[in-house]
Task: structure prediction
Amino acid sequence: MSDQQANLEWRDGAVPVSTRFDDPYFSLENGLAETRHVFLQGNDLPARFVPGFHIGELGFGTGLNLLTTWAAWDTAGMTTPLQFTSFEAFPMTAPDMARALEVFPELAGYAERLVAAWAEDTSLSTLEGVTARVVTGDARQTLAGEKFIVDAWFLDGFSPAKNPELWGADLMTQVGAHTKAGGTAATYTAAGFVRRNLTDAGFEVTRVPGFGRKRHMTIARKLA
Ligand SMILES: C[S@@+](CC[C@H](N)C(=O)[O-])C[C@H]1O[C@@H](n2cnc3c(N)ncnc32)[C@H](O)[C@@H]1O
Result:
């Protein structure tokens, strides 16, 4: 097992599952609908889109969240590029990314552009049409050194039980420090320690209905 690359197996031949974390990258049932429910609706998007809107993400994975948001941005008629900054410790290969995304035909045009740019440079410096950047490395080390401040966060580590390092108190404090007053965060989990860490990081935290069989998820709003 390599130290820095994603290590995958494929469930039903289609859904990538991390063997390092023993968890799927997205819902086994409907990854696209889950992303729309948890991360778009959870951050009140596309209603809040304005020029210059900036999204931060913990866990870039397959890029599905980026593509889903980019498509929603275009559908909303936005004419300036979306800004999207994501963090990833174990980048997957371009062929694996292409395979993971091919089950979402409505995103095919976006996926083709993402995979081509990813194959050249995983920081996405060559991707056009969206101002996206992926910071490689452990987010616990990399986020603190970043200067940007976002309107919304997608908190998308693997499940808190299996990937606790992406949900810890210090990292959530950094998430809070990189969020505008009134900005938001959303995640599919309602784990108590995650909600407490977000509260301690200056967010007002609310439990709302989750996607599919998940009873609850979490949305949060940064207090002034
Ligand atoms: C559930 S997946 C993300 C799915 C992704 N948002 C998508 O659209 O496909 C979780 C991601 O977090 C990454 N990850 C886990 N621990 C990390 C860490 N300490 N720092 C940065 N990324 C991490 C994993 O490698 C994995 O890609």
User: Anything to note?
Assistant: The mean pLDDT is 96. Residues 108-120 form the longest helix (13 residues).
